[in-house]
Amino acid sequence: MREAVIRAKLASDQRQAIEAEIPAHLLFTSGWPTSRPSRKEATMLASVRTRISDLICVAAQHTTADSVLDRYDQLLTRRVVPDSRESLSHEQTSFDF
Question: Of the candidates 46, 47, 25, 44, which has an alpha carbon nearest to the alpha carbon of residue 36?
Answer without folding.
Answer: 25
